[in-house]
Amino acid sequence: MLSSGYRFPGRALTPTLSVALAFLSLAFASPATAQEKMQRSLKVTGEGVETIPTTKTQVELGVEIRGDTAAEVQQQLANRTAAVVKLLRQRDVEQLQTSSIRLNPIYDNRDDRRRLTGYMGSNTVSFRVDTETAGALLDQAVQAGATRIDSVSFTATKSAIASARKQALQEATQNALQQADTVLSSLNFTRDEIVSIQLNDTGAPPMPLAEASRASQTPVIGGEQKVETSVTLEISY
Question: Are 98 and 132 in contact (CB under 8 A)?
């Protein structure tokens, strides 16, 4: 009988109370359940890196003018910038847009006196072009009226970056699984299910040009771009 092992001093247990105490005793004495096993998990992060050639050059260049009056500076700036933009459009550059327009007074602060001496204006544009034609185009832009080359950087095409990212994600996932298997096998465990997945994409930043050299034609040489990503897996065992 279930009630045979349960006695209170001076009285016998009722059948209902005996059954309740018996189930309570079994619940506390039961071994680890499958649900408790599922609560065990391991987190691992795998990395993937793909290297692709840069075929596009991102350029920012501009026109800077100084003059006696604001109107004079603005007019010259408009004329020279228009000539540069016309050239860039003829060369079918990509993503052509104005980056900044400025017109500022110039003061002479010598002898403790602030005296207006003129104005300085600038107009900056940015665009993207094939790397193999970038050097010649920079020279032509200077001839057309550009007075500054503010920045040059290299990047791969969007399709090349997207393809490389897919490959890097596959590498990162496999790397994470290999790490998990190595750790678990050393502890005599085996991996069960993927509990969660987290993508940690570091992107593919453009490569800056360290310095531009001067020659009969400005040489612009691209390089290689790394597409890096990582995947964090939480795996039950």
Answer: no
